[in-house]
Design goal:
The chain is α/β, with parallel strands linked by helices and about 220 residues long. The protein is built from seven helices and nine strands.
Length: about 220
């Protein structure tokens, strides 16, 4: 299965990608299984899951007090602002999987803090060993090596906020029965297809965030 475990819809403050257009793009590039991981909400994932003709994992990129942690196979939304291990506990309560997103990206806000990552690694399942939006190759290498050191499954993800980013980075893995445990087994045998996104994509993301803030402030007047 052609799989990508990190992408965003317009339910994230830094994306304008609609669930409909996300589905169309996934079909065009042949993605068979995706996780939609909007910031601090599962609304986008639920919208995509309703209409997509392929497997959709409900995910959320959750902002803890010490940086972002991703939950996969969620049933309920997890609030932001919890301590890292409390965030992990909320994911586990739903029988979900814990992924550490872009852990060493030096240019990003909200990466997991250095004083929290070792504790979270003890109870995590997956590390993004390759995130297409990481501007420095060495940051991906560091994440890859960290995953190996801690015996965690390595993923390669697009972290797409726009349609054009989908389909360049993905994983090829065996089909699974829909359960988190069987998915972990499949992911452990994945072939990673890793291609970096042009760093200028971050400019577009920043502009999108500003635009949505301005529109929101205008609507609230």
């Amino acid at each position: 299965m052609k799989t990508d475990l990190h992408m965003h819809t317009h339910f994230s403050p830094d994306s304008e990608l609609s669930p409909t257009n996300l589905i169309k793009r996934c079909q065009k590039v042949g993605l068979d299984c995706i996780a939609v991981t909007d910031h601090n909400t599962i609304r986008g994932a639920l919208e995509v899951q309703k209409s997509a003709p392929f497997k959709v994992i409900i995910g959320e990129e959750i902002t803890s007090t010490h940086g972002e942690i991703t939950g996969l196979f969620l049933k309920e939304e997890i609030p932001s602002g919890l301590k890292p291990l409390e965030t992990v506990e909320r994911i586990r309560d739903q029988n979900g999987l814990v992924s550490i997103p872009h852990p060493f990206d030096r240019f990003r806000n909200n990466v997991i803090a250095s004083d929290a990552i070792e504790k979270v690694a003890q109870v995590a399942d997956i590390v993004e060993g390759f995130n297409s939006r990481n501007s420095a190759k060495s940051d991906n290498r560091k994440a890859h090596d960290f995953a190996l050191k801690h015996g965690l499954i390595i993923s390669a993800v697009s972290d797409a906020h726009t349609a054009m980013e989908l389909g360049h980075t993905y994983m090829e893995l065996p089909d699974f029965d829909g359960t988190p445990e069987d998915f972990k087994n499949a992911l452990a045998n994945a072939r990673l297809i890793s291609n970096r996104t042009n760093p200028l994509i971050h400019v577009l993301t920043a502009l999108t965030k500003i635009k949505k803030r301005l529109v929101g402030s205008t609507q609230n007047r």
